[in-house]
Amino acid sequence: MTHSHKAGAKKQQNKKHSTAHSSKRSLKRQAKGRVESYYDQSGTKKRRHISLKAAVVDKKHERKDRAKQMRKNKREEILQKKRFGKKDAPTKIVGLLSFSEIASPEADYSQKVRKLMVDSPDVTLLPSQPNYNLQNYQFNDFQNCRVSLFNVNDRKNPKAVLDAGKMVNVLVLVIEADEGMDDWSTNIVRLIKSQGTPSIILALTGLDKIPVKKQKEYKKEYAAFIKEEFAQDIRVVPCDTEADGRMLRRWIVEQTSQPIHWREARPYIVPTHVSFATKGSETGTLVLEGFVRGKKLCANQLIHIVNQGTYQISKIEIPEVQEYTPRDEVREQLKSDKEPDVMGQEQPWITVDDVENEKKKLIRVPKGMSSYQAAWLGDDYESGEEGEDDSDEDNFSEDQDMADDQSEEDGLMQDFEERLASNNGTNTEDAKTTVDKFFNIDDDEDMDDMEREAERQLYLEQMKEMREETNNEREFVDTPTDAPARVRFQKYRGLKSMRSSPWDPKENLPIDYSRIYQFKDFKRSKKVATKYLCYTQDELIEEDTFVRIYVQDVPLEIEKSHNMSFDTPMMALALYRHEQKCSVVHLKVRKLLGVQTPVKSKDEVLVQIGCRWFKCNPILSEYNPRNPKKIRTEQYMRGGSKDDSSNKSAVNLSHTATIYAPITYKPAPVLMFKKDAMTGRMEFVAYGSVMDPEPDLVLLKRIVLTADIHRCHKRQAVLRFMFHNADDVRWFKPVELHSEQGRHGVIKEPIGTHGYMKCIFDDTLRQNDTVMMTLYKRVFPKWSTEAVDQLRKPVDDSSSVKEAKMIL
Predict the structure, then answer these.
(1) Taking a C-beta distance cutoff of 8 angstroms, is the pair 122, 215 a contact?
(2) Phi, psi of 556 (to 5 degrees)
(3) Mean pLDDT, rounded, for 62-73
């Protein structure tokens, strides 16, 4: 057994060898790859290896705490930038709107809140344009944040409220606590919600006049009302003391701006300085100074000054940096419509290179092969070149079309007879014999005109009662006795199916269609315009850039108008490519709940589409996205009545309003106003959004002709009072009949000379049934020349435009 000596507790421990400076190699070995960051005397960030002493001293939990603190500092730095923005960021635009009744201008509560907020040593007034409602301030106590403030002085002017809602980032609603909100506040809420809701702060004044125990209750009530209407977490700020003013400034600075999507989807500017650089005899060059907001801006675009019109840009300057001038090749023009071609009456296509027009090859396919099978044929298959002589095939197709037209009526009758025979086993010859046997109308032919007219009037009274019960009186039309029905209804035609029956959209177009534009591929053209694919990157100005825009040929009368009196701030939006060109524009609108004013089709209304206003006469139709080719017109806009509040389908019923107007890309809100016959004021009646322009959408007006069942036996009947002569019966013979109880039939032949006709149906017809014939006619909107001229002439001395400006 071996023995080894072990050192005891008193064994000598010699001091380890140490040096004054460790080598870099030893430090790396001791740090084991760990590094730390530090800043030298010049402020440069560097990294070094952790010393052995630091590596040993720092425990695991200490390292976690240090990393947690670093993450916290970075997060606070990012939040600070979001709250107060960058140093060169655009100013935050804030509007103050009073929700309480104002007895006098001196008692305007919004002015009191503004004075309380800016009358502080911590607020600095920045250089601003004199006599301009938009003033720039700097909040020194909140990271020197810059804010542009303005007041909505005329709270009962819908135009002023809408203009304020377009441009603000934060809207401060001022309410006097003891007075509350008046009836007009509901209209303000509707206008703001229909156009797009910005970030909202609720300022309560006069809260110190209310007992302390009820102050909290008042805050909750007002906050609940605003939250329910605008669907936002509203901050309620008392505004009575200087400390309350500082708190309001803090909430304005830290409030995250809620984007208005249609506004942020296009470039716009809220100028802080507006002036004329040059003046001529009638027009001049208007200079707008401000930040580019929303999207990028290009000098080739048109610029629309809200309430003043659309103009061209002569140049854009970034002060002391660069100047942008438009190129004539791609510069947008002010002309919105084409000169009508009276001889051709053809609709011109928009002449742009948004779609590549590839030359299609003509491929000969074997006889009987479908289009799906022909699509699999390769390019090497026998193809026909353009210009080949196909006269034999053309002649054959023309003869075939003529034969098809001649046999169309016979085919309809044969198809109906086959259905009838398969359903009940009765052939048409037996049916004809039955009608001749049981329905002898010789006695009716011997009646004089007075007796026949008396029976007709009795029938019309019965039909009138039936129409009132169905609430569909406008569609039922009585055939006139003084004119042939084939002349009175010569523009109408019958459709077997509203959804699937064909209707040529290029047939019998009005002369106005030669003035409008149509897109070959609207989605592609929209992408080219909104993505700026038609411009070079060097021509684009980034958002959040301070610019000076020179707008040419602006009338000098704009300086005398309401907006240039600097009572309301100005706003200008740049239009995308093609947005000045006119087409058939469709609007999806919905009537406001509680509006009693009837809105009839083709009535004169004022419509705001996006930021532009038009005076027009829209055609109202049903909104049917399932049938994008044909829709049925309506005489009145339904819904909106408080009596229909229990019927959700009536309240939420949408309509399609069709007008001639400049193109507007989605998204864009639509607000419709109509003049009240009693008060003479423009009433807000409907709201909605814009749809894609589609000139090929067929608007069909429907009428219904009714007939009296004179005699009937099983599936055969003799009808009268739908027509008044035999020629009309033969003219409308191809149109299918239907009854109120779901029977379908056709006209066999006329009987006598007074409009009696033999008919056969697919099932047993009852005597108390009503037989109807449905006819359709395509309708077109009226050309609203005033809406187009208003773009070129923003100041119009006509009485209608003056009246609109006074009311709105």
Answers:
(1) no
(2) -70, -20
(3) 87
How many CB atoms sit inside 10 A of residue 560's CB? 10
pLDDT band at 315 (very low <50, low <70, confident <90, very high): very high
Other Cβ atoms less than 10 A from the Cβ of 279: the count is 13
Structure tokens at 140: 């020194």
- Can you state the percent helix, strand and coil of the chain, rounding each to 5? 30, 25, 45
Residues with Cβ within 8 Å of residue 439, at least 6 apart in sequence: 711, 713, 716, 718, 758
User: Could you report the per-residue pLDDT of 500-525, keeping only the tens digit for each?
Assistant: 899 999 988 888 888 889 888 899 99
- Paired with 297 in beta bridges are 541
Residue 231 one-letter amino acid: A
Residues 25-45: tens digit of each pLDDT? 777 777 777 777 766 666 576
Q: Cα separation of 486 and 490, whole Å?
A: 5
Residue 125 structure tokens? 């007034």
SS3 label, residue 52? helix
Strand segments (E) across 508-618: 540-541, 546-555, 572-575, 582-591, 605-609, 612-616
**Residue 774: per-residue pLDDT:** 93
Please tell me the pTM assigned to this model: 0.75
Q: Which amino acid is at 474?
A: R
Strand partners, 111: none
Q: Which of these, 758, 759, 750, 760, lies nearest to 725 by C-alpha position?
A: 750
Amino acid residing at 460? L
517 alpha carbon, distance to own chain's centre: 19
pLDDT computed for residue 791 by the predictor: 32
Q: Is 82 helix (H, G, I), strand (E, B) or coil?
A: helix
Q: Given pLDDT bands bounded at 50, 70 and 90, which one contains residue 431?
A: very low
Q: Could you tell me how many residues make up the chain?
A: 808
The alpha carbon of residue 654 and the mean position of all alpha carbons in its chain are separated, in whole angstroms, by 13
Q: How far apart are CA 506 and CA 520, in angstroms?
A: 14
Residues 578 and 576: their CA atoms lie apart, in Å, by 6
Strand-pair category, 92-98 with 145-151 = parallel
Residue 125 and residue 142: Cα distance in Å, rounded? 15
For the segment 605-650, what is each residue's pLDDT rounded down to a tens digit?
999 999 999 999 999 999 988 888 899 999 888 876 555 544 444 4
Tell me which residue has tokens 């509901």: 186
Query: Is-contact 566 558, C-beta < 8 A?
Result: no
